[in-house]
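Can't attach files on this board, so I'm pasting raw text. These are the components:
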Amino acid sequence: MSTKGFRVASILFVLVIVLLTLPSMVKIPYYLHLTVLALIWVVVAQGQNLIQGYTGYVSIAQGGFMGIGAYCSALLSVKLGWTVWLTLSLSPILTGIFAILVGYPSLRVKGHYFAIVTLAFNMVIYIVLFNFRTLTGGEAGFTDIPRPGEFAVGAFNFSSLPSYYYLAVAAAITATVFCWLLVHSRVGRNLIAIRQNEALAEAIGIATWRYKLFSFVASASLAGFAGGLYAHFIRFINPDTFTVAQSLNAILAVILGGSGTLTGPIVGSFVVVFLPEYLRIADFFRLIVYGFILILATIFMPRGIVSVVGKLARWPTRSR
Amino acid sequence: MLAELAQQIINGLTIGGIYSLMALGLTVVYGILGIAHFAHGSFAMLGGYVIFFFFKKFGLSFFMATALAMPLGVVFGIMIERFAYRPVRDAPPINSFIIALGLTMIIEGANLLMFGADQIVIPTTYHGVINIGPVAIVELRLYVVITTIVLILAMTAFINRTSTGMAVRAVAQNRSAAILMGIDVNRIPMIIFAVSSALGIAAGAFVGSLFAISPGVGEGLVVKGFAVLILGGLGSIPGAIIGGIVLGVSETLAAGFISSSYKDVIAFLVMIFVMLFRPEGLLGRAQR
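---
Top answer:
Structure tokens for the assembled complex are below.
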């Protein structure tokens, strides 16, 4: 085995061990709770990375799409009494269908125009969730969303925190593997071509329009899936969770971690979930400190944490 | 019915004027520097708070306090350009957008820290009502509209008639040629942010006196500002003015005749509709 292959294999091995034993090692339930949230965020961030990092179109609607997924899955399970496993698997599909309707007008424009139009769509979703009281419960949202409890695999009953953790791990891995396969396929190469030079990509015969829509819908579906996972995890949703601020958080996760890489969104997700929690010590200054960290990080490590760590890891071998 | 329509249009013009002010600040920054200055809304709210503070602490009248706050805005605007945006000037555009998000957080955090989370309204003494036939105009609204028009005229005169304004337009048209002509391209972004921030402060003052300021208002305002930019065409000054009025009037008409809770949805649908048929905006040039 080559040294690089050996290194990758050993990292994966350690990672699997850590992921499997984490619930028994983390003694404070709150940290496990945050870890589950971070894993759900990995799903969102991988999706955001598809459209932002690989296709080069910054969408600011991920929070809204999470909302669509969350409300679809929660409503179907609460109002119609469908089993959570079914509603959870429907959430990305329903969100994807909605994303086609959003993507069609949005993708007619480029750059900042595109970003702002998707942002407007996010606000529309929020306002509808907020005002359509008969269906969504309005600002009060609705509670008692079931956990996927009745489906027990051996010792796992998915209504407990540790077992939901394993569900979140599975979801995060699925999203990452999906993106890995996509990026290393023909479709992925075409997406990267669009990011690098859209006019050229079109000139050599890539149907850029179709690929952009695909990338947009795939990223929205992942966000919708994450929204479903979130709803059944927290068991309470209201529109405030699905504002533009949430979409901005998804962008931050991708940028801070490292956009256009597969590990970046994972690292970024943990940062955006855990950093604000640690900054709670700063209390009133939290928002200000977070803002400064963001600005300094953008100025001094524009390629994200992953790239900085990668450089540090290569440093000893190179200096020799 | 007709009187109500006229009344709604008058109200819409006031709000539209404020949107135009917001959008003007955004459009000069975007059109000339290519920065989507997302922190503009929070910055405007900061202005509103400062004016409220001037009133409380020193008992200054509304317009006096606004006139004092605008130079402060100029100083802050220059600092924002110098320390936050300039370091990423040559990086991809998304980086400056992230900087804008960071700035938004800092300004929102500072607003919360200094002025608390309570909703405030800047008090004024202009409560009189002027009746023109069946249409009633509150005195304050009239003054706000007049001040808005004066500010817009002053800004366009600055851009179109002064030599500094000419330098700004030169940089917008062709940056490298402007450098060759001896224009100091480090000074131009500062001037643009100074102008934009002063306009933002004025917009914040008007929102604070006509409506109310509270945390989170700034975000909604900046999104409306960007919607105006899209309506009118990114970077176009007449587009920002017309777009602001179109958005303000359609929004109040929607609130008055259709549904007040869905007025923003209707405003955004207007924007999306315009974009489907004229992606470059009402007055924009075709995209390159």
